[in-house]
Specification:
By secondary structure, the chain is of the alpha+beta class. It has 16 helices and eight strands. Strands 1, 2, 3, 4, 5, 6, 7 and 8 form an eight-stranded mixed beta sheet that branches. Helix 3 crosses helix 13, helix 11 packs across helix 12 and helix 11 packs across helix 13. The longest helix has 16 residues. It is globular. The termini are far apart.
Amino acid sequence: MSRRSALNLKSKPIRPETSSRPTLLLQWYDRHRRRLPWRAAPGEASDPYRVWLSEIMLQQTTVKAVGPYFEKFVARWPDVTALGRASLDDVLRMWAGLGYYSRARNLHACAVAVAREHGGVFPDTEEGLRALPGIGPYTAAAIAAIAFDRRTMPVDGNIERVVSRLFAVEDELPQAKPLIQQLAATLLADSRAGDSAQALMDLGASICTPKKPACSLCPLNEDCTARAQGSQETFPRKAPKKSGTLRRGAAFVITRGDELLVRSRPEKGLLGGMTEVPGSDWLAGQEDAAAKQQAPELKGLSRWQRKVGVVTHVFTHFPLELVVYTAQVEARTRAPAGMRWVPIASLADEALPNVMRKVIAHALDV
């Protein structure tokens, strides 16, 4: 469907099967809804805190990966006021391994704002929610619909896929987003807005999957344009991805008996506030010799051992390769300014991002 034809939908009579889509979706959802730890049971009111927490965690992360983290968070901080009282360091430690750490910093800032400025109660409108740290248009719509039943349609990746196939949206992403948003809104029921959104999310996750969708089980299969064309897997249309330039650097893993030398990254920027081993800058085209010259200086440390191989990691905007050097120092060796010794046995309590976990495992042969 082209943008022009889609936008002309409003001026054309709605076919009976088209007008029944929201009802069909809710009927399907009532039979097949997923059981998720943050989702209210049928007939129960949704908890805005659990909805918000899950939506932040689910950004660019799978349901399977989020589940254990969500359970840990609500066990430690059962409501937004409790989370707002926590330290950012504690939140980062609990978040470690989930990735995209700016989300954790925004999560904490939002909890503080809700606790201090709103008495621990989330605003119940999209406008009020968007004024909070870390809540953008999609998250505000999701919370407003699911937690407060506001008649709005959040569009995540699953809904994007369902709608683009249902209407055969030819425009490429991301340019197609406004059109898909408009078309998705036509699938809202007159009531149960939150269930309408979650029905589409579940449909995309379980039936209208990226590959080999189970079209025969879809409640909307008789009215799906892409299915009629036999082109389901070609939607949504996407512009070719641009891969970032490879960056290179070095990581220095220094042990003092059963302790490891670490430091905290600057609060702002990539992996802000997270724990890392000392390392060089991450630069495109950086030579190993130049990276090694950025090694920390410690008393009595004169020899580095380079580990065979490199540690690779892919960030959103660039891939990274790190050469790893190891060294040992004597007991009572002082840590350089801005660094500290931590017991290797307690590394699980540190806010280590995945790339640093890889580095340490590589260095210590874990």
